[in-house]
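User: Can you recover a sequence for this backbone? Please restate the input before giving your answer.

Assistant: Of course. Working from this structure:
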């Protein structure tokens, strides 16, 4: 990565590649079919991106990965991940949401880009081997490393900065210690004039300072503070009172199992 000629804050302000995404509601005929039937997508208006890091959070099925995928497709990324020059496909599972959103662009043009998604990482690693471009990903085949090692190898070696990076649940293969390593990587990319959008469940990654966090709920998409997220509260409460919480959770499960046996 080259060293920028400006301070980190100046670099962020000048390199706002994407300003917002919005749903072109007037082009839709119905909200009854997927993915428009997903409550958060149904209520989607205009979501503004942070110049550095934006997080999407929510329960499974809340629509966060669906919107991230749509943004990726709208920007010209491959649905299963990779840079914009990747065009492989193992199975078409993406929605058509990208056809009905508009990306508002800011100042400047990114010189690097990458879409990383946990669920299709194996397919991406296979395509990298097929293309014989392993040098740019740490020389060693990603398949010859553990899942977590391969993730970090890709993030460390492939991402050059001055780019737009989309990550879908990057914590899936990473230990807590490795997630801390990803925090430092995020900071390095931000310093080098990058803009990053991440769908995640990780309370560790969400702690990145000054990031914008959007929560996907049945009522819509709203911005929240880190300390107001369920991720923060559940993790904090469990770690502070894990014995008591386990007692409550497992006792309730025992009662449920006994009740089913009696029936």
């Amino acid at each position: 990565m080259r060293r920028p000629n400006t301070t980190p804050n100046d670099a962020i302000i000048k390199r706002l590649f994407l300003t917002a995404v919005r749903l072109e509601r007037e082009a839709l005929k119905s909200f009854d079919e997927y993915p428009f039937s997903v409550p958060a997508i149904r209520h989607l208006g205009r979501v503004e991106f942070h110049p550095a890091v934006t997080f999407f959070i929510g329960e499974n099925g809340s629509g966060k990965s669906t919107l991230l995928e749509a943004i990726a497709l709208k920007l010209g990324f491959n649905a299963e991940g990779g840079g914009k020059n990747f065009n492989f496909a193992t199975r078409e599972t993406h929605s058509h949401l990208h056809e009905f959103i508009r990306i508002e662009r800011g100042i400047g043009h990114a010189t690097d880009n990458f879409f990383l998604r946990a669920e299709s990482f194996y397919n991406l690693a296979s395509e990298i081997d097929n293309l014989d471009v392993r040098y740019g990903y740490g020389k060693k085949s990603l398949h010859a490393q553990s899942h977590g090692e391969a993730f970090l190898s890709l993030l460390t070696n492939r991402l050059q900065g001055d780019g737009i990076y989309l990550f879908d649940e990057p914590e899936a293969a990473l230990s807590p210690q490795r997630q801390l390593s990803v925090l430092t990587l995020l900071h390095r990319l931000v310093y080098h004039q990058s803009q990053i959008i991440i769908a995640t469940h990780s309370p560790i990654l969400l702690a990145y300072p000054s990031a914008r966090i959007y929560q996907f709920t049945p009522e819509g998409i709203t911005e929240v503070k880190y300390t107001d997220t369920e991720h923060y509260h559940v993790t904090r409460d469990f770690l502070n009172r894990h014995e008591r919480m386990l007692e409550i959770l497992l006792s309730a499960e025992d009662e449920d199992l006994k009740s089913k046996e009696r029936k």
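That completes the design. The chain has a mean pLDDT of 83.
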